[in-house]
Amino acid sequence: MKVSCFRPWIVTLAAAALTAAGCGLTRTGAGPAGSPASLSGIGPITFATGELDTGSYLPSLLAQWNRAHPRQRVTLIRLPDDADDQLAQLVMNLQASSDAYDVMSLDVIWTAEFASNGWIIPLSRSLFPLSEFLRPAVETAMYHGKLWAAPFTSNAELLYYRSDILARAGVRPPKTWAQLAELARTIAPKFGLWGYGGQFRAYEGLTVNFDEAVQSAGGSILSPAGTQVTLNSPQARRGLAFLVSGFRQGWIPRAALSFDEQASQNAFEQGKLLFLNNWPYVYGQASRPGPGNVIAGKFGAEALPGPQGPGSSALGGANLAISAFSRHQRTALAFIKFLTSEAVERQVLINGSLPPVWTRLYHQPALVRKFPYLPVLERAILSATPRPEIPEYNQLSLAISSSVHRALMLKESVGVTIAQLSRELREIIRNG
Ligand code: GLC
User: Fold this and answer.
1) Are residues 208 and 296 located together in one domain of the fold?
2) Of 46, 121, 40, whose CA–CA distance to 89 is shortest?
3) Residue 221 within any structural domain of the chain
4) Within-domain flag for 6
5) Is 89 exposed, middle or buried (0-12, 13-18, 19+ CB in 10 A)?
6) What is the pLDDT of residues 337-385, one digit of tens each?
7) If you average pLDDT over residues 264-272, what whole number do you get?
8) Would 169 be classed as within a structural domain?
């Protein structure tokens, strides 16, 4: 069958099928779909990305690009902080076939949804030095055997701790969740602190924290292929019971029920928390003393605890994708190649303390001196558990975060929560 390709701005619903079938929407000549030869459209572009961790490094990179490309200037479109709100804004525009966003920073959990809806175009693998990148990061950009975005930053949560307080108490950072609970319960109150904080508001961040608790107790939410719900297990109940006991016993403060990344970071920087579970960008920000930060130089970061020793984080991160509706896809690709180059990723690490996808940046002595946790972080990323790579991921996650939040508010028992949530997830997967 001959497949004809549309100009991007007259794309209709049929585009979804064509794109999913591997048809570069603006394909003009030789070269596989998603290769430079296949992409057309040179001109100004926009870059849509979440706000949370971009302030420290992005403006100077954009200025650098714009100086070198006066006819292909990039304009930043800031999306909300919260991953769920970012997704809602992107989806609303893409469902209307809007060309407002040329390059989009996609959370690693969205690849399947964006690819299967035909909102982004597949990219030739030969465009990027993928073998130099951390393998788990590359896998998050793949769907049904194709590359749909360029890995940009990876992510694994770390355990931040107040090194000054632990030293005064004469104890070492905890290696297991049981040790963490013990120190949070006994040491923190002696120093007038809350014990432990993470992301416990009902949104994607809570799904991440729940996922970590479940996997750290030896359980899982779905089977590896994402086809079966495996949540209804004693291990998953133990994982949730651990977090619930924190709220019940008070070593996780009730205030944490409304913590997202920023609010939990603020509490840590204001000197209110002994332990914090958060992403690596917090390291850079918390190291800069300022009016709201009293803990610069007084904290450390380690791998998340596990049942017996270092545990595993959920795999996070962001990939850069080209909108199927962009009119300047060739420029979009050039911009993505710029942002994912080794030199730029180095700057993103130095200025934003975001985890690069270039493996060798984790081993450069100068960088390890500046970010002593880099070797720990690399291991954390390599052992992190990906969240399910399925188009219905967002529905799944909304169900998880809302029922887990009810359990953390002590409104529903652990057993009932896990049983009901398992039923809901089965329903979502069945109808997906
Ligand atoms: C971070 C992670 C992302 C995750 C989000 C949850 O941005 O990189 O993968 O979904 O936090 O809030």
Assistant:
1) yes
2) 46
3) yes
4) no
5) middle
6) 999 999 999 999 999 999 999 999 999 999 999 999 999 999 999 999 9
7) 98
8) yes
Among residues 33, 37, 2, 40, the alpha carbon closest in space to that of 19 is found at 33
Pair 50, 86: CB distance under 8 Å: yes
Model confidence, pTM: 0.90
> Is the Cβ–Cβ distance between 243 and 252 less than 8 Å?
yes
Tell which one of 105, 110, 204 to mutate to probe ligand 1, the residue whose CB is within 8 A of the most ligand atoms: 204
Q: How many domains are there within the chain?
A: 2
Q: Which domain holds residue 395?
A: 156-314+389-431
Considering the domain architecture, whether residues 31 and 20 belong to the same structural domain is answered as: yes
Together in a domain, 290 and 354: no
Residue 27 has pLDDT above 60, yes or no: no
Same domain for 83 and 161?
Answer: no
CB neighbour list of residue 143: distance below 8 Å, 6 or more residues apart:
111, 112, 115, 116, 389
271: left (phi over 0), alpha (psi -120 to 50) or beta: left
pLDDT at 309: 84
Q: What is the CATH number of the domain that holds 249?
A: 3.40.190.10
4 lies in some domain: no
203 shares its domain with 226: yes
Which atom of ligand 1 approaches the CA of 199 most closely? Answer: 12
Same domain, 240 and 265: yes
Give 34 Cα–ligand 1 centroid separation in angstroms. 27
Question: Which residue's CA is the closest to the ligand 1 atom numbered 1?
Answer: 316
H helical segments located in 199-287: 204-216, 234-249, 261-269, 281-286
Choose the final residue of a domain: 361, 383, 405: 383
Cα 5 to ligand 1 centroid, rounded to whole Å = 34
Q: Are 354 and 371 found together in one domain?
A: yes
Contact 99, 8 (CB under 8 A): yes
Q: Do 309 and 212 share a structural domain?
A: yes
Helix (H, G, I), strand (E, B) or coil at 61: helix
Residue nearest to atom 9 of ligand 1 (CA): 316
Residue whose CB lies within 8 A of the most ligand 1 atoms, among 79, 134, 155, for a mutation test: 155
Identify the residues whose C-beta falls under 6 Å from ligand 1: 83, 107-109, 155, 204-205, 208, 261, 279, 316-317
CA 127 – ligand 1 centroid, Å: 26
